[in-house]
Specification:
By secondary structure, this protein is an alpha/beta fold. The protein contains 12 helices and 7 strands. It has one domain: Rossmann fold, CATH 3.40.50.300. Strand 6, helix 7 and strand 7 form a beta-alpha-beta unit. The structure holds adenosine-5'-diphosphate (ADP) and magnesium ion.
Length: 262
């Protein structure tokens, strides 16, 4: 089981969009995936098809506080076959003052390794305790960076957070593994500058770019990752290429289904 965490402190940097695509890429490879939505706005849950009519047995907040087990609380994604979701609700906000949540996922996720092949965690904006909990449990850390925006310097902040607060004790060896440049439009000087700066600072950790297109928003309204909503769209090919080296950690293993049949 590989635990993927998508982070960056700035809101609107395309974390959630990218997390949903990681879920989609893994399930396409036959992996059973648990998606954990740690943003109180529940945007990842919505991108995975959860809406007001979905009956939800438990929440991510309940799992973080030990009131529910992930296995009982997760709901099947209505739109992504092979994925389950721990939904994000407003209670997540109240956890930012409870230090015990920091180690909750790190301690409990190993228990669900029989049920899911991989875990994908989406984080809220900021560098609070809930984000620390996601980083403490992470095996692969991914920063999603909209090159059209101003989040570039946040990558260094995330790296500092990992270096100073996560890697020393919470999660030894944790590092910022990947940077996915998104909302990219190479016709804009700003986007080209941001991409060049990322590549200079982070080298081969920077994946291929994901273009900017309204299809991503349409997919959100339809409650689906864009690669399921519009599989033939260029943006879906962008995401497939960008995420391929990232999910290789999982997909290079014996196909999960074949493993289960043994
Ligand atoms: N490739 C893209 N092209 C156009 N819009 C995008 C793209 N990726 C994300 N978006 C939009 O950008 C906004 C922020 O994305 P989101 O994933 O919610 O960011 P975060 O989770 O970091 O706050 C959303 O409205 C989303 O639909
Ligand atoms: Mg988000």
């Amino acid at each position: 089981m590989t635990v993927y965490t998508v982070a960056l402190s700035k809101g609107g940097s395309t974390k959630t969009t990218t997390a949903a695509e990681v879920v989609a890429a893994l399930t396409r490879a036959g992996r059973r995936v648990l998606a954990i939505d740690l943003d109180h706005q529940g945007t990842l849950s919505q991108r995975l098809g959860v809406d007001d009519d979905t009956e939800v047995p438990g929440t991510a907040a309940e799992v973080l506080t030990g009131q529910a087990d992930a296995g009982q609380a997760a709901v099947e994604s209505p739109s992504v076959p092979g994925a389950h979701v721990l939904v994000g609700t407003y209670e997540l906000n109240t956890l930012e003052t409870k230090p015990e949540v920091i180690t909750a996922l790190k301690e409990h996720l190993p228990e669900v390794a029989g049920e899911w092949d991989d875990v994908v965690i989406d984080t809220p904006p900021g560098q609070g305790l809930v984000t620390l909990a996601a980083l403490a449990a992470a095996e692969v850390v991914i920063a999603a960076v909209a090159t059209e925006g101003e989040a570039y310097d946040q990558v260094a902040r995330l790296e500092e957070l990992i270096e100073h607060r996560v890697a020393p004790r919470l999660n030894r060896g944790c590092r910022l593994d990947w940077i996915v440049p998104t909302r990219h439009d190479g016709r804009r000087l700003h986007d080209r500058d941001v991409l060049a700066a990322l590549r200079e600072d982070y080298g081969s950790r920077v994946t291929g770019t994901v273009r900017e297109t309204v299809t991503v928003r349409d997919a959100y309204l339809a409650g689906r990752p864009v690669s399921l909503y519009a599989p033939a769209a260029e943006v879906s090919a962008d995401y497939a290429a960008a995420l391929e080296p990232i999910v290789a950690a999982s997909t290079a293993q014996t196909p999960a289904t074949a493993e289960r049949q043994v």
